[in-house]
Amino acid sequence: MAIPPDRPRQRGAARYAKPALTDEQLLARLVRRGVGVPDEGSALRSLRHIGYYRLSPYLIPFRAAPLTDAVRPGTTFDDVLDLYEFDRTLRLLVMDAVERIEVAVRAALTDHMATTYQDPFWYLDGRHFSDPAVHARFVAMVRRTATDRLERSAEESDGDLVHRSALEHFLLTYGEPELPPSWVVVETLTIGQVERLVANLARTSDTRRVGAQLGLPAPLLRSWLRSYVRVRNVCAHHGRLWNLGLGVYPALPRRGAVPWVRPEVFSTVPDRARRLYPVLVSLQSVLSTIAPSSTWAARLDTTLRTHPTVPIRGMGFPTDWQDDPFWLRATGGTDGTG
Predict the structure, then answer these.
(1) How many CB atoms lie within 10 A of CB 258?
(2) 311-318: which pairs have CB atoms within 8 A and are 24 or more residues apart?
(3) Residue 336: its pLDDT value, please?
(4) What does pTM read for this prediction?
(5) pLDDT tens-digit profile of 218-257?
(6) C-alpha–C-alpha distance, residues 27 and 25, integer Å
(7) Are 45 and 27 in contact (CB under 8 A)?
(8) How far is it, in rounded angstroms, from Cα 264 to Cα 157?
(9) How far is it, in rounded angstroms, from Cα 206 to Cα 212?
């Protein structure tokens, strides 16, 4: 039976008794499981600087059978390391796209709200938000951030090169009003805080106008932002992105609503919608509006071609993904109209 979301999950009953092992012992364990080690010194350096625990999930696709530790014959440590390096490159690539989109949402949000309502401090006005409690917590968070930043602000002295944030500049320059204008505030927000601010907007017309700056209808803006919060947190904490179940995925758009892959990609294999692939498609879809000259899609293509042995089916990629007109346009292969 599923545990109700308001009840904490119970701790397990077993007692953890695994011993701490040296890098040499851990490498010997891998050898016993069938992993070939062409260069022991290089493998030990990788274990020392990456860690066995971080590398171990990348052994999973090389297992000889499910729920066994033995790997398929011919598997080498370099194979495992290549998958790890692929994931690291993919993580940095995704982080780059999410960062661009996060900045674009901040700008679109504050520009629309401040100019439409002629109020630099619109975020303090509860009439703009649907949930008063959520809004009150947001304002309290902004106030705490301002107080903390002021207390931690370095004292200027002659000869010091001090770079002050926009928030510090406001607080150290102006005595009134208490809190800064929205274009200063949004620069202090995490993507999660931006997502909650957008989700709490009371008027659909506001969400629609903000989304339009990114080429997104309001429902897609809200949905895609939620998925970006999750994927950004994974990337920021150096977590595994390859084959990860995110739990939150971008809603699939209606035909023609935004640049997108062929509809049959997801209609024929519905499970793909719960993989990383739709996240990557959505990122490129937004980038095509906010950064049309971006080489992000080409870099994604290069990353996959550089690691041809990496299994990508578990991420939801179709075998012929590069031939989709969506990706061909994005990488400059063709305009997709021929």
Answers:
(1) 20
(2) 311/61, 311/243, 314/61, 314/242, 314/243, 314/275, 315/242, 315/243, 315/275, 315/276, 315/277, 316/271, 316/272, 316/273, 316/274, 316/275, 316/276, 316/277, 316/278, 317/277, 318/265, 318/269, 318/272, 318/277
(3) 45
(4) 0.90
(5) 999 999 999 999 999 999 999 999 988 889 999 999 999 9
(6) 5
(7) no
(8) 64
(9) 10
User: Is residue 265 a contact partner of residue 318, using CB atoms and an 8 Å limit?
Assistant: yes
The residue extents of the domains of the chain are 87-154+164-331
Which whole-number Å values give the CA distances from 45 to 23, 27, 81, in the listed order?
Answer: 9, 11, 12
Packing angle of the helix pair 132-152, 191-199 (nearest 10 deg) = 150
Decide: helix, strand or coil at residue 251.
Answer: coil
Distance between CA 125 and CA 108 in Å, rounded? 18
Is-contact 330 97, C-beta < 8 A?
no
CA-to-CA distance for 329 and 22, rounded, in angstroms? 50
Residues 96-120: tens digit of each pLDDT? 999 999 999 999 999 999 999 999 9
CA-closest candidate to residue 316, choices 259, 253, 250: 250
Number of other residues whose CB lies within 10 A of the CB of residue 97: 25
Residues 27 and 47: beta-carbon distance below 8 Å: yes
The whole-angstrom separation of Cα 196 and Cα 177 is: 24
For 242-256, give one letter per residue: b (16+ CB within 10 A) or e: bbbebeebbbbbeee
With helix as H, strand as E and coil as C, how does 109-176 read? HHHHHHHHCCCCCHHHCHHHECCHHHHHHHHHHHHHHHHHHHHHCCCCCCCCCCCCCHHHHHHHHCCC
pLDDT band at 149 (very low <50, low <70, confident <90, very high): confident
Q: Structure tokens of 85?
A: 């390096």
pLDDT per residue as tens digits for the range 73-102: 999 999 999 999 999 999 999 999 999 999
